[in-house]
Amino acid sequence: MKPQALVLTCEHGGARVPSGYRRIFEGKAARKALGSHRGSDLGALRLAQSLKRAFRAPLFASTVTRLLVDLNRSVGHPGLWSEFSRGLDRTERSAVLARHYFPHRQAVESWIDERVRRGHQVVHVGVHSFAPSVGGRRRAADLGLLYDPSRRDERAFCSRWKHALNTSDSELCVRRNFPYLGRSDGFVTYLRKAFGPRQYLGIELEANQSLLESRHGQQRAAESVIASLRTLIPGETRSSTGEP
Q1: Are 143 and 172 in contact (CB under 8 A)?
Q2: Largest CB tally within 10 Å, which of 25, 61, 200, 213?
Q3: The domain containing residue 197 runs over which residues?
Q4: Is residue 136 included in any domain, yes or no?
Q5: pLDDT at residue 2, rounded to an integer
Q6: Is the C-alpha dihedral spanning 31, 32, 38, 41 positive or negative?
């Protein structure tokens, strides 16, 4: 069995607007969006940082708002640009991609490629959070584990992880491929095309923002995720070099 190497990412870690693009976020609607779940994955970066400390794993994170450019969407996807940034001209959009989009994705892909070349199976956990309700409908889960069901190792890993999470905290509601489908467009979907199923496991961890809104909830989520993940990844292969 291949040794495993853990890498963490957080594509929506903040709602920062680079100075050159503040003009497009001056309106009331834009400012409101920046402060909401649309501007960033609220609480996700703090959770990712807790995992980084616990596992001494590299964390690649961005604090630029996804309302400027969404690092978790493919080039050409309609969600890459928001209604606020879609009006940028071609030169400005190219500059945004060159400065903020491609460096993040290329750094992660290069790190994974290096580890795969060393004979590791990389476990990539992309840390995200989701709004408690959408359109008046409550999302009934505390944590979601997104994966591609057609990739056997991802399916088995998430099955074990769900069991370990429920063992760590039996009151947590953990669902697989919720609130999104693991095969939807995303960074891990792109990386699955670059690396084979025995080389790369692309898992997205989704935490309910209602769980992360209090200090107690943040601690509960972090402790449960850390304790459960420790049962899945052998201790000698958790820590990794080349941390960003």
Answers
A1: yes
A2: 200
A3: 4-237
A4: yes
A5: 85
A6: positive
Answer yes or no: are the C-beta atoms of 132 and 209 closer than 8 Å. Answer: yes
Q: Residue 198 is which amino acid?
A: R
Q: Flag whether 242 is in a domain.
A: no
Q: What is the number of domains present in the chain? A: 1
CA–CA separation, 11 and 71 (whole Å):
6
Cα separation, 177 vs 145, whole angstroms? 6
Q: Which residues of the chain are under the pLDDT cut of 70?
A: 235-244
244 found inside a domain? no
Residue 243 lies in a domain: no
Distance CA 13, CA 223 (A): 20
- Give the list of residues 6+ apart from residue 142 with CB closer than 8 angstroms, or none: 172, 173, 174, 207, 208, 211, 221
Nearest to 129 by CA among 46, 6, 232, 29: 46
Q: What's the CATH code of the domain at 192? A: 3.40.630.40
Model pLDDT, residue 199: 97
User: Residue 151: phi, psi to the nearest 5?
Assistant: -100, 110
Task: Please compute Rg for the chain using Cα positions.
Answer: 18
| Residue type present at position 133 | S
pTM of the model: 0.95
| Confidence (pLDDT) at 236 | 43
> What's the CA gap between 86 and 89, in Å, rounded?
8
